[in-house]
Amino acid sequence: MSSQTTAQYRMYLGARVLWPPDCPDDILEGAINETQSCLKTFEAKDGQKMAEHLKKYLDTNFEPFWHVFFGKNFGCHSIHEKRRFIYFYIDKTAYLFYKTQ
């Protein structure tokens, strides 16, 4: 995305998703739903366990190798498989998932 392009977000399944998403609907829905489930299960201090759970979920359901990042302030530059990049917010926390070979 160039510095002149403004990111566009849309509400989808209760998350503010970078639009258009760069993944199939089933992966996007699974990632958002599983993240929302984790937020009900894990305490805030258990971020590493939540990240591990989300990675295992994505690897198991959508083939390895997924990378999981989330937080309120981070940057990332990565190379990922085509149509395997997910970026969304739930409340003020950003979630970034992408798949590599």
UniProtKB/TrEMBL annotation:
<keyword id="KW-0243">Dynein</keyword>
<keyword id="KW-0505">Motor protein</keyword>
<dbReference type="GO" id="GO:0045505">
    <property type="term" value="F:dynein intermediate chain binding"/>
</dbReference>
<keyword id="KW-0206">Cytoskeleton</keyword>
<keyword id="KW-0493">Microtubule</keyword>
<dbReference type="GO" id="GO:0005868">
    <property type="term" value="C:cytoplasmic dynein complex"/>
</dbReference>
<dbReference type="GO" id="GO:0005874">
    <property type="term" value="C:microtubule"/>
</dbReference>
<comment type="similarity">
    <text>Belongs to the dynein light chain family.</text>
</comment>
<keyword id="KW-0963">Cytoplasm</keyword>
<dbReference type="Pfam" id="PF01221">
    <property type="entry name" value="Dynein_light"/>
</dbReference>
<dbReference type="GO" id="GO:0007017">
    <property type="term" value="P:microtubule-based process"/>
</dbReference>
<protein>
    <recommendedName>
        <fullName>Dynein light chain</fullName>
    </recommendedName>
</protein>
<dbReference type="InterPro" id="IPR001372">
    <property type="entry name" value="Dynein_light_chain_typ-1/2"/>
</dbReference>
